[in-house]
Fold:
Amino acid sequence: MFKTIMTIIVTILVVLFSIENFEHVPVSFIAGKPVNMRLIFVITVSGVIGYLIRHFSAIATEDRLKRQLQHLLKKKNSVKKGPRRVGNNRKEMLLDDEFEDEEEL
Structure:
C-alpha cells in the first residue's frame, strides 16, 4: 500500500513539473544556430546523460577494484603457500605474515 501511494505522489509531482517546464527554450549546441526545444526535454535528456556517465564510470571503477582484489588475493595465497625461509640475506627472509613484494626488499 505504501509503494502505491508513493508511486502516485511521485507521478503527480513529475506531471506537475512537466507542465510547469513545457515552454520552448533556445538550445545552443557547439556549432550552428540555436534550436528551440521544450524545456522538459532538455531537462530529461540532461538527466539521462548524467545518469549514463555516472553508471559507466561506476562500472569501470568496479572492474578496476575487482582486478586489484584478485591481484591481492593471488599475492596473499602465493605468500602463504610459498616456502617459509629464514636466512642471512634480507631477500631470503620471507615469512607467512609478510605481504611485501620481493622487489621492495
Q: What stands out?
A: The two ends are 63 Å apart (CA to CA). The chain has one domain: 2-92. DSSP finds two helices and two strands in the chain.
